[in-house]
Specification:
Layout lengths: L1 H10 L2 E2 L5 E2 L6 E4 L9 E7 L5 E10 L5 H6 L14 H9 L3 H27 L5 H23 L4 H12 L2 H21 L4 H8 L3 H12 L1
Parallel strand pairs: 3-5
Antiparallel strand pairs: 1-2, 4-5
Helix pairs in contact: 3-4, 4-5, 4-6, 5-6, 7-8, 7-9
């Protein structure tokens, strides 16, 4: 974590008016997914230089288990939404160790319902233009992969993965991806038009057919 910040900081170094080179570290946050009462609100690293000078480097901690899907949507942390399914791992692991078949079946239903809820919320974000089609697709794949992980390690329900896959595929199809690409193209074209570029120049730089450029401009500006 520190090495990553240091390397990225070096890429963003500059000289101030006092001829002192400055390193700008990107703002970082460490995420812990599974509940642990011993995890503190921040991670601290004491950096000691050769002359014994010390510098305390502190990074905030995000305790994922304290957030639900509504919190993540409100804070626009959309890529983390599918990981709500991972919150079931601890309960499933405990039930498996106890060989509590009834509890595992109960949690299987919870996992199926949660997967559907998260997938629908992802679809709503796409419909509201909060995420692109490719992001929506990635979130649905993450939901499928997490269900597969939970099922094959703890639940062992031959129908669970199939049902979730059918459900997610019903929400996503090639038309969704096409819609996402078109949104992205429109944003690029309109931004370049706003910078004063003409249709031919926009087409040449973006590799978008000039007729498509004109279609986008007509659709969004007329």
């Amino acid at each position: 974590m520190f090495e990553y910040g240091f390397r990225k900081g070096k890429e963003n170094a500059d000289y101030g008016g006092d001829n002192i080179k400055r390193l700008y570290f990107p703002k970082q946050k460490v995420i812990f997914f599974e509940e642990n009462k011993n995890i503190e609100d921040s991670l601290k690293l004491m950096i000691v230089f050769g002359d014994e000078k010390e510098f305390l480097y502190e990074v905030d901690v995000m305790k994922y288990w304290e957030y639900n899907d509504k919190d993540l949507i409100e804070k626009k942390m959309y890529p983390l939404i599918p990981l709500q399914l991972f919150n079931l791992r601890k309960k499933l692991n405990y039930a498996k160790k106890k060989n509590d078949i009834n509890k595992i079946k109960e949690l299987s239903i919870v996992a199926r319902n949660l997967a559907e809820k998260l997938a629908i919320e992802s679809k709503e974000l796409f419909d509201q233009d909060e995420i692109l089609g490719e992001d929506f697709h990635s979130m649905l794949l993450a939901i499928q992969n997490l269900i597969e992980y939970l099922n094959r390690n703890y639940i062992d329900d031959e129908n669970l993965e199939k049902e979730v896959n059918i459900m997610t595929k019903s929400l996503y199809d090639p038309e969704v991806e096409k819609k996402g690409i078109e949104k992205n193209q429109a944003e690029i074209v309109l931004n370049m038009l706003g910078e004063g570029l003409d249709e031919a120049t926009i087409s040449r730089f973006t590799k978008i057919d000039i007729e498509k450029v004109r279609e986008i401009i007509k659709k969004y500006l007329n």
